[in-house]
Amino acid sequence: MEKHIVNFGIDSLWINFCYADEQEQPIKREIDQEVLDRLAVLQEQAKMQDEPVVTDLPAFNGTRLWMYPHGGGARSPWRFLLRNDSLELKVGTGKKTGYVAKARLLAPYLWSGERLIDCIAEVHIYVCGIFNAMMYPQVGEVHPCVDVVHDFSTADWQDGFVRRSALVPHFDRQMHFVETEDTSDADHVVGPDKVFMRHRPITGFSFGTHASAVSAVIYNKSQYIRTKEPESDYFYTLWEKNSYDGKQDVWRVEFRLKRDVLRDFKIDGVCHGIDNAYELPDFLEGIWQYCTTQWMRYVVPDFTDTNRTRWQIQPIWQELQTAFVDLVQVELGPVIRERKRVVNIERIVPQIVGCAMTYYAWLKNDTPCCDEDLSTVLHHLYSSGLNYLERSHKDFNATVRKKQRVYGLIA
User: Fold this and answer.
1) How many CB atoms lie within 10 A of CB 320?
2) Residue predicted with more confidence, 114 or 52
3) How many CB atoms lie within 10 A of CB 317?
């Protein structure tokens, strides 16, 4: 049987943090004033410069966090926003909910390691260090996904995608999904809510909204990398390790489960809920089964039968349902870091050359530029650059070393 699945895993994960007692149970209380004052000073610096500033907080995944001048807005419980390429951390007072931080583990970080549990532990330890206290990690939202060699744009997508309007999931003691109820066809929604196109060809579908407890997107990941996110072409390396030949586009099937549905998961009919983030890895196989066997299916339309629950499941969807069982995830940390470095250099060079030519155009004023080349511009720019460094009292080597530390290039 030909293999179509080339990748699986978690693309984004949100973890809420509150204080914990000696038994590591959650305590709902406000943020310590010392932590609040420290973050307020950093945010004031960002506001004065009207741009993010690098913080003196410990580095996460080798890179310092940046403090942004704004938080989450007037109505948001989050007053501070810190971020690097691996982690986004929002911090609030905890007055209303008792939760003082919300961490988002970003895709490059999640794909860089082999085990989700290690990523959760690293973020947990880091947040405990910032608050100088034991913290309780509550899973807030998770996005499991599978990359597959299959063109969904040519499918019978108007009638082929069928999903439940509402369902409470159940698991057995082995964390596998168990179907416990039979619903009528009236409880189903047919087709996507939105269809995305780029120059006519269909590039993706969305099911549900960002406010939904469960939603999904299916989109052309290869096209997305080519047009919007070239720095994430490290996925090609990952796909190739799973027998991808590079000839066809890869599509991503991604589900998004919020806190509302995670807390209602049941085991043997008893409401267990996924609360502590360390429990999440044990549930991933069951969550994927729920999403692909109950919440949404991809079927072969058969209009001779009015009950869509009896329509045959597409072969590609049957293969996709087993993704979290059969595959082994590949570590991509070094590949991601190197690709990020190369792409940043590729982006900066055109900017530097463009600015240099603009600089020389103003320098020449009304004299036509005829026989000069880039070396002529750099010769003039060198002298002006030395004058700038002297006026601003900046040491070239010290400044470069500082930027290397900020971007995690040196220890």
Assistant:
1) 21
2) 52
3) 20
